[in-house]
């Protein structure tokens, strides 16, 4: 089992020096990415992730040069060659390599890099999913196209570091007095039996996990959902709260800014949603 890299479909050593100096991803963050989880040697929700990748590329006006079948084959080859059965595959496409100038180059070909590593199975993450996470609220300092999964992640990076320094699992961001999302997750709360989450507009990334919860899991469990922004105070008064994400899966939130959410224990609705999500993974990835 070994982490591996890939450039334009060719396998490379994970530590190979493969980024040209004038790759626009390197110089401008001019590109988009996806992260897909591998369970039991199979990709989970690959189609949903690649569809979002195509959307990000269209929004950034980066030409689409790989079909879904090609991208699926690259994912499968990375799994096979690496021998990694429980992991994560990172995929990024940049606008390409050209002399540095802000406007789009006239002739440039998008550049694909990928990597596979074991992720998501560590003891810390497992404990968070089981026992719940502490989070902090921080200002949302990002740009206004958070719906694009672009390489520009400085707001997210600085927020996550604040969480780490506060001894918390995640920083959840506040813009104009409303909760948007976590630095690498979407946020949900439960009040009076209703599940609340921020609408999927330009201010958040429409998480694949979020979509499964809103469109499939909650309806099947008979849990009403409202996609409406809420304030940090409203969240602090919630009966339950949780985060969703590809690596995070469904992680209960038991404290916000050092104060317990409700009685500080994982709530029953969160647990039901968590179980239903794991069942979806098992259904797609078990042999
Ligand atoms: C800012 C942000 N929001 C939400 C998510 C969750 O998205 P998904 O469920 O597709 O992993 C991510 C995932 O990395 C993210 O970076």
Task: Please supply descriptive tags for the structure shown above.
32% helix, six-stranded antiparallel sheet, 8 helices, single chain, nine-stranded mixed sheet, 15 strands, D-amino Acid Aminotransferase, Chain A, domain 1, 287 residues, alpha+beta, 2 domains, binds pyridoxal-5'-phosphate, D-amino Acid Aminotransferase, Chain A, domain 2
Description:
This protein is an alpha+beta fold. It has 2 domains: 4-121, D-amino Acid Aminotransferase, Chain A, domain 1, CATH 3.30.470; 124-285, D-amino Acid Aminotransferase, Chain A, domain 2 (Alpha-Beta Barrel). 32% of the residues lie in helices and 28% in strands. It has 8 helices and 15 strands. The protein has helices at residues 24-28, 46-60, 68-82, 123-131, 154-165, 208-221, 232-236, 268-285; strands spanning 4-7, 10-13, 31-39, 42-43, 87-94, 111-117, 133-139, 170-175, 178-182, 186-191, 194-197, 225-227, 240-245, 249-256, 259-260. The strands form 2 sheets. Strands 7, 8, 9, 10, 11, 12, 13, 14 and 15 form a 9-stranded mixed beta sheet that branches. The protein has a 6-stranded antiparallel beta sheet with strand order 2-1-6-5-3-4. Helix 6 (208-221) links the parallel strand 11 and strand 12 (225-227). The longest helix is centred in the C-terminal third of the chain and has 18 residues, at 268-285. It is globular, with a radius of gyration of 19 Å. The two termini are 20 Å apart. The model has no long low-confidence stretch (mean pLDDT 97). Pyridoxal-5'-phosphate binds at residues 156, 181, 184-186, 205, 207-210, 244-246.
